[in-house]
Write a structure and sequence with these properties.
The structure holds 2 protein chains of 2 kinds.
Chain A: E1 2-7, H1 10-21, H2 27-31, E2 37-40, E3 45-50, H3 55-60, E4 66-70, H4 71-77, E5 82-86, E6 92-99, E7 110-114, H5 117-126, E8 131-135, H6 142-145, E9 151-156, H7 160-164, E10 167-176, E11 178-182, H8 186-189, H9 191-204
Parallel strand pairs in A: 1-3, 1-4, 7-8, 7-9
Antiparallel strand pairs in A: 2-3, 4-11, 5-11, 6-9, 6-10
Chain B: H1 8-22, E1 26-27, E2 33-35, H2 37-40, H3 43-46, E3 53-55, E4 61-64, H4 69-74, E5 83-94, E6 101-113, H5 117-134, E7 138-144, H6 145-154, H7 159-170, H8 174-183, H9 187-198, E8 200-202, H10 203-209, H11 217-232, E9 242-245, E10 258-264, E11 272-276, H12 278-283, E12 289-296, H13 297-304, E13 312-317, H14 323-334, E14 340-343, E15 352-358, E16 364-366
The chains are: A alpha/beta, B alpha+beta.
Chain lengths: 205, 368
């Protein structure tokens, strides 16, 4: 039986539909959101529902054979997994954003609020900019408004939230979308099943 | 004591030592501390930044053994053409998960000598035997550094692009390879790059299938190495367990020929990795060729280790009995029981499969 780690939440809903379209009925996953492990005996597949940021950890450690995860999470965790397919869904940009009229003062360290600590460190170390990271877990946009930070590093889908809060994109770091990932050992021992799922998802595009 | 009395994780080093010794490998014992200079210039080979260092009494900076291969290479005798060593050592590195130092138990072997086809065939065959001793459901994934670096060289990319291509191949990330090809105007190579990333075929099939990828003499030469290895192993019953897969990587500054990773079904990470590292030898001013592998015993322990349900097979409660009576009773029980713990009263803290009571007449009675 193959174990698939699926993200809960908005991305999850899109992914359940994709799996249903390729013949893996996820209605039970959608119907009972409190259940964390759901088995589809007919298709020899088991789904585990986890926080989006934990999908790659479950896959890297072999608790799940494959999973669906945002590229932003892969960049942040640096998980050593196979990244088999770009599903072209959940597309967003990872950006540096700040107040519309923000002027950077190069004489002092830049204060950056973010939940993406590693992406932020890597990006600014490439530009040799001295920064102070303020780790937040949500409502990142509040930080520059309240003066907690100079800028933020966050994901942006449409940019509406930024606009509504008088913020603007200052620099784009990377683009992100949902990826099909596989554990490096499972991939070889479940090669036929994983390539079959990959092929079907690829044909959906 | 029989080998079968030992747990699987205790048996494996003994079984493997016997196999390696049959092929003429001698046990290598490494010093606990070695000069840091040895490792400083070859940190990339270690794939870790975390080396435990300290200053010794002479003021020299020393390292707590982070790697065995480099120590063996340094101690290789220039006048001897052939040297074969195996080792069981604990090395100290930084964990990629916790970023803390961790002690890793490794077992491995190094073949230092002429770089002919036999050395590669013997070491690969021993890697297969090593995996087979652990579990029959295993695979050995293999790539050829020369083959892949010659292909990437043909694209004539800048350094940053080379790094990105290797990273994408390591993760079978075809989406990234397509983007690189598009950005760098390598569109005619995009298809081949993606097919190389996805490539995963048994060694026997690869010998002919890989012809399609060859674009220069270096690749043809590397493919000949793969074909020769396949021919040399043709009678090995485990030949079918070898797959060519270009997600197996190795730094070209150190590795030059075949590189490989061993996987056991249900163990999420590679348990064995190795390859041919003539380039590392050259960096140490040695003109011999070398190939070897390491088996990560710590990785195996996570799966093989079974926590006992009981603290002891047998618990003997002796109450007020004299010491000589207890000694006699323990010796008598040990004739039929696996192990015995004697206590004067049972406070319930020791879990035992069988509990015996020592009676006044010196006999023991099994409690229900």
């Amino acid at each position: 039986m193959i174990t698939v780690a699926l993200p809960k939440g908005r991305l999850g809903d899109k992914v359940y539909d994709m799996f249903s379209k390729i013949g893996y009925d996820c209605s039970a996953v959608k119907a009972d959101s409190r259940k964390l492990v759901i088995e589809d005996v007919k298709n020899d597949i088991r789904y585990i529902l986890v926080k989006p940021s934990d999908v790659s950890i479950y896959v890297e450690h072999g608790s799940a054979d494959i999973g669906i995860v945002g590229k932003d999470i892969l960049l942040e965790t640096g998980s050593d997994v196979y990244e088999l397919l770009d599903l072209n869904t959940g597309v967003c940009r990872i950006v540096v954003a700040g107040k519309k009229n923000y002027v950077e003062d190069m004489s002092i360290p830049l204060r950056v609020a973010t939940k993406y600590v590693n992406i932020t460190k890597n990006y600014f170390s490439r530009t040799n900019r001295v920064i102070e990271i303020i780790k937040l877990n949500g409502s990142i946009e509040l930080a520059p408004i309240l003066g907690l930070s100079d800028v933020i590093v966050d994901i942006v889908e449409t940019g509406t939230t930024l606009k509504e809060n008088d913020l603007a994109v200052l620099k784009e770091i990377a683009t992100s979308s949902a990826r099909l990932i596989a554990n490096k050992s499972s991939y070889h021992f479940l090669y036929d099943k994983i390539t079959e799922i990959k092929g079907k998802l690829e044909n959906l595009k | 004591m029989n080998l079968t009395d030992l747990s699987k994780e205790e048996q494996i080093p003994l079984i493997l030592s016997e196999i390696y010794e049959k092929y003429g490998y001698k046990k290598y014992k490494m010093a606990k501390f070695e000069p840091y200079d040895l490792y400083r210039e070859n940190k990339k080979f270690l794939k870790t930044d975390g080396i435990i260092t300290f200053t010794n009494a002479d003021g020299r900076l020393m390292a707590m053994k982070p790697d065995v291969t480099m120590s063996i290479v340094k101690n290789t005798k220039d006048e001897m053409r052939l040297q074969k060593y195996f080792y069981i050592e604990n090395v100290f590195r930084t964990s990629s998960d916790t970023h803390e130092f961790q002690e890793i138990e490794q077992m491995g072997l190094e073949f230092i000598g002429d770089g002919d086809g036999y050395s590669e065939a013997e070491v690969v065959s021993l890697a297969l035997k090593t995996l087979s001793a652990i579990n029959e459901d295993y695979l050995l994934n293999m790539a050829h550094i020369g083959f892949i670096s010659a292909f990437i060289g043909a694209l004539d990319p800048d350094y940053e692009t080379i790094v990105k291509i290797y990273e994408a191949l390591k993760h079978k990330n075809t989406a990234a390879l397509k983007n690189i090809a598009k950005d760098k105007n390598m569109n005619e190579y995009a298809d081949k790059l993606c097919r190389l990333a996805e490539y995963s075929s048994p060694l026997q099939q690869s010998a002919s299938e890989l012809e399609d990828f060859v674009v220069n003499d270096e690749m043809a030469c590397a493919l000949n190495d793969i074909k020769s290895l396949c021919a040399a192993l043709k009678n090995d019953p485990a030949l079918g367990k070898i797959k060519i897969d270009f997600s197996v990587s190795g730094d070209a500054d150190y590795y030059n020929g075949i590189v490989f990773n061993g996987y056991i079904n249900t163990i999420p990470r590679a348990v064995l990795s190795g390859g041919r590292y003539d380039n590392l030898m050259k960096r140490f001013g040695k003109d011999q060729c070398a190939i070897g592998f390491a088996l990560y015993l710590s990785e195996l322990d996570k799966v093989l280790h079974k926590t006992d349900e009981y603290d002891a097979d047998t618990l003997l409660i002796y109450g007020n009995a004299s010491a000589d009576r207890v000694m006699e009773a323990v010796d008598a029980l040990l004739k039929s029981r696996k192990n015995v713990i004697a206590v004067n009263e049972n406070d319930g803290m020791i879990k035992a499969q069988n509990i015996y009571l020592l009676k006044n007449n010196g006999e023991t009675e099994l409690q229900k």
